[in-house]
Amino acid sequence: MPLYDYKCAQHGVFHELATMAEAGMPCRCPQCSELSPRIIMIPPQVLAMAEEKRKAMARNEKAAHEPIVTTSSLREARAKERDKAQQDSRRKSGGGCGCDHHDAQSGLRKQVVYLADGSKVFPSQRPWMISH
């Protein structure tokens, strides 16, 4: 038999075994014998959960029953929409975010120095990175 939670107005929450047929019926408080309604307790970790995680869990739960069906043509169309949106935002802001960081990074990636032993060195990039 399942264990259900009930709440007495005077003595608070208590737990009782009941058949599934009696699940919706009130139960008598063990201390005062008053009829007490069944309650559904929410685990505390759900209440304290980050909003992003809660939304992700809800989205995953929905996807288990209603999976998103996709095709290569739909993926290509979505990719084109994303690219167009990025280009539009760059045009509106005057190209990129204005920090010149992105252009500098792409220029740094192109700088490769080959040493006499054949190993590569990237002078301006991550000095802690080991070349191979």
From TrEMBL:
<feature type="compositionally biased region" description="Basic and acidic residues">
    <location>
        <begin position="75"/>
        <end position="91"/>
    </location>
</feature>
<dbReference type="InterPro" id="IPR013429">
    <property type="entry name" value="Regulatory_FmdB_Zinc_ribbon"/>
</dbReference>
<dbReference type="Pfam" id="PF09723">
    <property type="entry name" value="Zn_ribbon_8"/>
</dbReference>
<feature type="domain" description="Putative regulatory protein FmdB zinc ribbon">
    <location>
        <begin position="1"/>
        <end position="41"/>
    </location>
</feature>
<feature type="region of interest" description="Disordered">
    <location>
        <begin position="57"/>
        <end position="103"/>
    </location>
</feature>
<protein>
    <submittedName>
        <fullName>Zinc ribbon domain-containing protein</fullName>
    </submittedName>
</protein>
